[in-house]
Design brief:
With about 160 residues, the chain is mainly alpha-helical. Helices cover about 45% and strands about 5% of the residues. A 3-stranded mixed β-sheet has the order 1-3-2, covered by helices on one side.
């Protein structure tokens, strides 16, 4: 089983989820380059308030870029073009939020996100996304809570930093 692709999920639910952050989805034709993609190929891209993807874009990539959008400062969102930037603490928070957002999508969830993140090559001190999230991500959760991106229960507030 490969990574979960946009073509394999409820795209209306995805669009509604991302719209809560003010992001609009732009679907790119098959085989066309994805505007704003940092990693190229089929990975999601960010430009301004838009997230660009194809049907073969991995869901983990879409959620990761959406989490970057939510976690960056308003000034960075204003000039957003491909590179979300941010420091190590913010990147950890992005990964944490990405996993949390997976819980908001039908038939996705955190277990699938853990597996797809590991398969893609995300690296964590404890060796896997699940071990990191469950045992070592308190700093990321705190970062998100301090910026009101997560509530006191660890649920997304759908507010941007």
């Amino acid at each position: 089983m490969g990574v979960l692709l946009v073509s394999g999920i409820d795209r209306v639910a995805l669009a509604q989820l991302l719209a809560r952050y003010g992001l609009r989805i732009s679907l790119v034709a098959p085989e066309e380059a994805i505007p704003g993609s940092y990693w190229g190929e089929r990975e999601a891209g960010l430009l301004g308030g838009g997230i660009f993807l194809r049907l073969d874009t991995p869901v983990h990539s879409v959620l990761h870029e959406a989490a970057h959008f939510a976690c960056m400062t308003a000034e960075r969102r204003t000039g957003l073009d491909t590179d979300a930037g941010g420091d190590h603490a913010e990147e950890s928070a992005v990964c944490y939020l990405q996993i949390t957002l997976a819980e908001q999508l039908p038939n996705v969830g955190r277990a699938r996100m853990f597996r797809d993140m590991d398969d893609w090559g995300y690296s964590f001190r404890l060796g896997s996304a699940s071990a990191w999230f469950l045992e070592d991500a308190q700093d990321a959760r705190r970062w998100l809570a301090e910026r009101s991106i997560l509530d006191h229960e660890g649920r997304p507030t759908f507010l941007c930093r």
